[in-house]
Amino acid sequence: MSRYAQARRRNPRYREIPKFLEEFVEDESEKKRKNEELTGKHWLIFIVASCVVAIVSIYLQKSLPEPLGPNEENTRFSEIRAKPILHKLSNIGPKTSGSQACEEDAVNTILEELNKIKPKVELGEHSLEIQTQYPSGCFDIPRFDTDGFGICYKNVSNVIARLGSKHRKWHEEHSAVLINCHYDTWPTSYGGSDDLISCALMMELIRVLGEPRQPPIPHDVIFLFNGAEESSLLAAHGFIVQHPWRHSIKAFINLEASGSGGKELLFQAGPANQWILNSYLEAVVHPHCSVFGQEVFQSGVYPGDTDFRVFRDHGRIPGLDLAFVRNGYWWHTEFDSAELITNGSLQRADIS
Ligand SMILES: *[C@@H]1O[C@H](CO)[C@@H](O)[C@H](O)[C@H]1NC(C)=O
Ligand SMILES: *[C@@H]1O[C@H](CO)[C@@H](O)[C@H](O)[C@H]1NC(C)=O
Ligand SMILES: [Zn+2]
Predict the structure, then answer these.
(1) Which of 155, 157, 158, 234 to mutate to test the pocket of ligand 1 (most atoms within 8 A of CB)?
(2) Protein residue with its CA nearest to atom 1 in ligand 1
(3) I need a labelling partner for 237 at 20 to 30 A (CA). Which of 36, 60, 144, 261 fits?
(4) 196 contacts 149 by C-beta, under 8 angstroms
(5) pTM (2 decimals)?
(6) What's 329's domain CATH number?
């Protein structure tokens, strides 16, 4: 409202306005109104800007780094070196927990690879202790996954490798980090992404962290390759409530998939312990997180679960849950094989 119009409203004496002034007042407010209106031009700018943002986000979402080989000092994570074991495990075929493919073929392939890495690692200051565990037990699944039930298991398998300093005994070490993958698969799937890519990633981490020319790592890292996840998180439970190494574990990283390759997404963290999230953001080469996953998973809407819940609820330790989520329609199907994982997915997942 113009000053003239305001005065006119307050004081009736201003009601009589000379003709030329009246016109002037009308013109002013008309011009202002026109300026405030959204015209076709504004909408065009808005639509073009939205499209540009969408195209850039899709491009960034799809872009993956070039797969690299190891460098001279062996300090670089290498997808090219990590791939052969991934293909070998995937090519075994579906590996349901309890099947020969899972309990013998996959276990032996993993043990063979670890035993190949061990002598090289132990040339330097590190030790790599390799174990198998065959736990049996019972626990309750809360009203979450399905409708809540008690479950018992017998003789499921775990392959565990502990990387530490040669100068420390494991029982003297008071803080260790657990990294978990599972080598069993859904009955119809080769499990290339769910979850062998994570097991291949862990093997590569051992090769890089255990480099003999490097000083020993400050805290032990326990690599758990578990053999019964798809059948309701059994093997992770067997490890975290029974294995003697569980006592020193202060945090865990669970590596999962609900798709095939792409960018690994951090979708659950905690409980509490902000420091874990901070150290993730500081250390990881390509951080990528979303709070949406945590909301969905912890609300119980999504009918699935990961070993994250077992470590959190039965181990009472905080941790991170990461998953490959691209091409979700391949998840748990015969298309989830090593060949169909986009090149660069593993290179990008480097968490060393
Ligand atoms: C448990 O499984 C392993 C390998 O799958 C086998 O060698 C062992 O005999 C089994 N133990 C029992 C008690 O069934
Ligand atoms: C991925 O890389 C390998 C070589 O490392 C190549 O043979 C293969 O064709 C590539 N796959 C795609 C989809 O580009
Ligand atoms: Zn899985």
Answers:
(1) 155
(2) 155
(3) 261
(4) no
(5) 0.84
(6) 3.40.630.10
